[in-house]
Specification:
15 helices; flavoprotein; Flavocytochrome c; disordered N terminus; 4-stranded antiparallel beta sheet; single chain; FAD/NAD-bd_sf; elongated
């Protein structure tokens, strides 16, 4: 039965009620989808037939991080007329600021190093980190397509860190049972986003910055046919800026990332994550696109699972430089409880278990190492930033951090025996053959305290990246990839899998969006 201004179909009513319930659960009851009657009474409405479009395209990609750029490249390569918008005044989103390492199964780098890996092992590592709450089929898809996607990134111009022989190399990442993470270099994720954006430019598609999505536009059947945006929006305010309506005759792809910087929204999901908990994300990581999706009938999943990055410094704001040193250069260094001077965790476990162990102590923990035990670079930047300090003895370090000196000296000595024997008798941390003991001055210390990093929650999607409604049916004309899509990683994302997820699913979303029929 067709809806009119006088009547509302039962299906429309049920779908609207379900979406309204979802919004209420997210703490967003004021954003509930309107009935047809309400839409027609509203001044702006969200039905395509009521709008005068300001701009036209076939595929509209929202967001310019890994997922958005990959989606735009694939959609354009498939022959679609593509428009890509970005709410911030710079290209790349969080991806441009990320460490950028990439988990890849069956890579040429693993082959060169003689490392045997498998799809099953990769998937199992993701499931363990995610407490088996993951979308297992999505995890398998990511693992299966990881190598071809890494090779594709190279074809697009992405660059990776190199060893002394000028070759990409593997880096040990917490939670991975097998070495499969390809290391990114100085510049991090921008070594991927910059060349991908440049490749788009060569294809005639420029990222249009300072354009913020505020609402998805649907036709009478519920198909998404475009979006309302605000050009020049200020401070993530959806009421600021110039309103525009963009028609997407094939599809809209959401690659808008997470909501880690949206304090009110994230506290509605997890009240513990208040303003005392810092965040690694850029300022644009807010929830307006998720709200718009749910208002259009999308199912939101796992929004209260929010990952904390454990090896961050409370002595700097945002992402800073800490992780490039603490997790990059000093990844094998012991993490000590300030009160006891004892280790608290396998420092190469997954991020949730590491962060939970630090939080359990109730105060920042201390990481201590020395020059000979470090890998790569990053120390000097950490010293210059004031988060890492140099000491001539372990006793001096203990005094500086108000720790029991005898306990610290004893614990470091015990840890050094584990390094010598290549067996961690306390926490079973894997110790590589080239690991070095912490026994030569100068010593270096840094405080560690977790920060909000990655949102596990977002809109529910299928293997083709269609956004699903409350009945688990695709919302026609709407796709999502990357952090905007929820449920993929379960309770906690395994480190270095975000790059893989975003690029794999961004490509899939772009390919399928370009294949949608024109409305």
């Amino acid at each position: 039965m067709k809806e009119t201004t006088e009547t509302v179909s039962r299906r429309s009513f049920v779908a609207g009620a379900a979406a309204a319930g979802a919004l209420a659960a997210l703490g967003l009851s004021g954003c509930a989808p309107k009935s047809t009657q309400e839409k027609e009474l509203a001044a702006s409405g969200n039905q395509g037939s009521e709008l005068n479009w300001d701009e036209e395209c076939e595929v509209l990609v929202v967001g310019s991080g890994y997922a958005g750029l990959a989606a735009a490249l694939e959609a354009k390569s498939a022959g679609a007329d593509v428009k890509i918008i970005e709410k911030m005044n710079r290209i790349g989103g969080n991806s441009a600021f990320a460490a950028g390492d990439m988990a890849v199964c069956g890579s040429s780098v693993q082959e060169r190093e003689g490392i045997s890996d498998s799809i099953d092992a990769f998937v199992e590592d993701m499931l363990i980190a995610g407490l088996y709450l993951n979308d297992k089929d999505k995890c398998r898809l990511i693992a299966e397509k990881s190598n071809e996607t890494w090779e594709w990134s190279n074809e697009m111009g992405a660059t990776w860190d190199q060893d002394e022989n000028g070759e990409p190399y593997l880096y040990p990442y917490g939670g991975h049972s097998i070495m499969r993470t390809i290391c990114q270099g100085v510049g991090g994720g921008s070594n991927v986003t910059t060349p991908l954006a440049a490749k788009l430019g060569e294809m005639g598609v420029e990222v249009e910055t300072e354009r913020m999505l505020t609402e998805l536009v649907q036709d009478e059947s519920g198909r998404v046919v475009g979006a309302k945006v605000r050009e020049g929006a200020i401070d993530n305010d959806p009421e600021s800026g110039k309103p525009l309506a963009i028609h997407a005759s094939r599809a809209v792809v959401l690659a808008t990332g997470g909501f880690g910087r949206d304090l009110e929204f994230r506290m509605a999901q997890d009240p513990r994550l208040n303003d005392t908990v810092d965040c690694t994300n850029q300022e644009g990581a807010t929830a307006e696109s998720l709200k718009a999706s749910v208002a259009a009938g999308a199912m939101a999943v796992h929004t209260d699972w929010i990952q904390l990055l454990p090896f961050m410094s409370p002595d700097e704001q945002g992402y800073g430089v800490a992780a490039f040193y603490t997790d990059g250069q000093a990844s094998y260094a012991p993490t000590l409880c300030k009160a006891t001077g004892k280790r608290i965790v396998n420092e190469l476990t997954d991020r949730k278990r590491y962060a939970d162990a630090i939080l359990e102590t109730g105060e920042p923990c201390i990481q201590i190492t020395c020059n000979k035990a470090l890998y790569g670079t990053g120390l000097q930047n950490a010293i210059d930033a004031g988060i890492t300090h140099e000491f001539s003895t372990l006793e001096e370090a203990a005094e500086f951090y108000d720790m029991p000196a005898d306990a610290v000296v004893e614990e470091i000595a015990r840890y050094n025996t584990f390094v010598k024997d290549k067996v961690d008798a306390d926490f079973e941390k894997p110790i590589p053959d080239d690991a070095q003991p912490i026994d030569e001055a100068p010593y270096y210390g840094v405080r560690l305290w977790p920060k909000v990093h990655h949102c596990m929650g977002g809109v529910k999607t299928d293997l083709d990246c269609h956004v699903l409604d409350m009945n688990l049916s695709p919302i026609l004309g709407l796709f999502a990839a990357g952090e905007a899509a929820g449920g993929v990683h379960g309770a906690c994302r395994l480190g270095s899998c975000a790059t893989t997820d975003c690029l794999v699913n961004g490509r899939i979303a772009g390919q399928n969006a370009a294949a949608e029929p024109i409305d």
